[in-house]
Every structure is written in structure tokens, then in C-alpha cells.
Amino acid sequence: MGNFKFLKDTDKNLYDIISEAEKLYRDEYFEQCISQTRRYAENLCKNVLGDKRTTERTFDDMLATLKDNATHSKQEKEFIDDLYFLKREGNNSVHSNKVQKDGIIALECLQRAFEVSINYIVYHKKGNSNILKRQYDIDLLITGKENKKTLKEKYETGQKLSKQKEKSKHKNKNKNKKINYPHKEKSQLFKFFLIVSFFISTVLALTIYILNLV
Hints:
Elements lengths: L11 H15 L3 H20 L9 H10 L5 H22 L7 H22 L13 H6 L7 H25 L6 H32 L1
Helix pairs in contact: 1-2, 1-5, 2-3, 2-4, 2-5, 3-4, 4-5
């Protein structure tokens, strides 16, 4: 289960390639995930060009041909920009001297691949335009399980958890406070009064005794 399930019936090969990229991300193989999204973009580009491919040998050549044949619509511009992004990041990942551990870049590659897929299905395969409403689900990426809750239900769950956390925090804070009981304060005051009275009585008694001696 993954974000690209809608692609499966249209192009099983592309679906398998990009599903593997999500698995790699889930297992924290971010460098390999980025490379896999580049592979996905190149294969998808070949499919889009179809009969328009002639002497192109590299991904760059195919993108150049795709750009030359573009109608310059906003949708097409975004499609080509996303493909260039996936190619560039994939090349950087392959040719880097250091192991790429940046999950943020890998996640953006998956999100861009998602947008490319929707564009491919709707505008190149004349698929159902309802998928234009889809958004990339990070929870589904991480868990591999679809969350069927609506946006409203997710929001309400988040609010509940936030309130419970705040309540628990407030409760713990109150536990640590020193409690002053009124009856305890009165008891301490009474003891103080008795000590002062005893002291005064003692001083008066000594004074009277001394005066009698004189």
C-alpha cells in the first residue's frame, strides 16, 4: 500500500519503480530513494514522448525534446520542472562523494514524483480527473497503511490529543506545588501566641519576685 496505488492499473512498471522508492524511504535509505525517483522520472518521460523519440539517448536529450514539443501551458511547465528536479537530485545523489542522508530531499522527490504521476495519468493517459484532488500522504508513506479519516476527523483527533497533553501538563504542575492548608496556618499562629504569652508571664513573675525581695 502506498501513495501511488492509482498508478497501478495504468502502468504496472512505473508503479513498481516508484513503490520501491517509497519502501527505500521508509527504511531510511534516502540516497537510494532519490536515485529511484530519478529512474522513475526517466521511464515516465520515455512513455510520454512515445513516437516523438528519435535519436535521444540520455534523460537530458529526452527532456529537451519534451520541452521543444511543449505547448507552454502552466500544467505542462510544472510537469517538466518536476522532471528536471528529479533528474538533478538523482544525479547529485549518484555522483556525490558523501552518502546522502537527507530525508527532506528524498521526501520532496517523492512528492514531486507524485505530482508528475497525477499529471501523467490525467493529461497524458486521459485518466479520471478526480485524482487531481489527491494530496501526498506522509502518514501513508511512513506506516504503509491508509488512514481513512477525513481531514476534519484528523483535525479533531489532533485537538483532543493537544488538550489531553495540556491537561496532563497542568496536573503535573499542580502536583509539584506546595499546598498551604488554612487550618495548618492557624495552628502555627496559635503556637506562636502561646510561646509569647508564656514568655511575658515568666518575665512578669520574675519582676514581681525581685521587687518583693527589695
